[in-house]
Amino acid sequence: MTSTPLPLAAAPAGASRRGLQASLLPLAVAVLLSLLPSFLSSYGSDLVLRIMVYAIFALSLELLVGTTGLVSLGHAGFFGIAAYVTVLASGDNAASIAWLLPAAMLAAGLYALVTGALSLRTRGVYFIMVTLAFAQMAYFVFHDTPIGGGSDGMFLTSRPVLAAGGVTLLDLEKSSHVYYLALGCLVATYALLAAVLRSRFGHALAGIRINEQRMRAAGYHTYWYKLAAFVLAAMLAGVAGFLMAAKNGAVNPELLSWHESGGVLMMIILGGLGSLRGAVLGAIAFVLLKEFYASSAILGSIAERWQLTLGLTMILFVALMPQGLIGLARRWKRSPEAGHAH
């Protein structure tokens, strides 16, 4: 079950132009994000930083849900484990980003290897519940034992740095350095996943999502493909966990909770499944909506019930835009062409 892509020469000129535009848009967004700190207040920069961290988190889950068709409700487990490893491994002296970030990713990946090896033997709602169970196990390890400071969590004594030749290139004590590291990680994550989706591996994952039985009949060992995707997604979630720990300077068990897993799942649904840009759009919309509904300066006493208002808004979004924000953007983009054709 392998499909031969069309030769480039056979592609319509319009398709080539759209492909070029699709490549330039993420680059333009990255340039815009790099310029934003010059115009934003410290609050605005922190908000954009939070959006970028959650965008990486959402992109990692998009690989599982949107590409492979594996709906996980335990993805926050990898996010939180990486955040805790960042704090635990840092010690009292400033640790190097060069080994601390890979260590956080590796810890998330190793836990995903165990989790995936067992949970991928189940399907559907059973898979959802097993991934949730593994995430909750990790949650209670940090919540109920001294290893992670209990329910109060832990503080990052000294934030990581990156130095070369005696010159400090990145010092995460500086918020601007955290911002640009997060931007670099977001660009790298997006580019990596875009390359994965275009690869044979990515096409195999898409085939598994559409019809796993046919893929197995065609000779693909679908279990190993899914396990590889599961571990890769966890390691990318680990990047987001590392950045969250560096940004906040503290971690707590709520980073591993099912609420966090549900939140990132809502992000990719809100943005539109099956699209990397949709995952980023969903992260932007979710964080901004949460910030808006929780603002007592804007909504007064209603802000105390932000979970209710956010939940109702999500229901409306899903009911009115089943393909998410990216689907709305596509319809808006097609409508002038349709009107011109008539």
From TrEMBL:
Transmembrane segments: 20-40, 52-85, 97-118, 125-142, 178-197, 223-244, 264-289, 310-329
Annotated keywords: Cell membrane, Membrane, Transmembrane, Transmembrane helix
Family annotation (InterPro entries): ABC_transp_permease (IPR001851), LivM-like (IPR043428)
Localisation per UniProt entry: Cell membrane
Superkingdom as given in the UniProt entry: Bacteria
Its membrane topology: Multi-pass membrane protein
Pfam families xrefs: BPD_transp_2
Protein name, UniProt field: Amino acid/amide ABC transporter membrane protein 2, HAAT family
Species annotation: Noviherbaspirillum suwonense
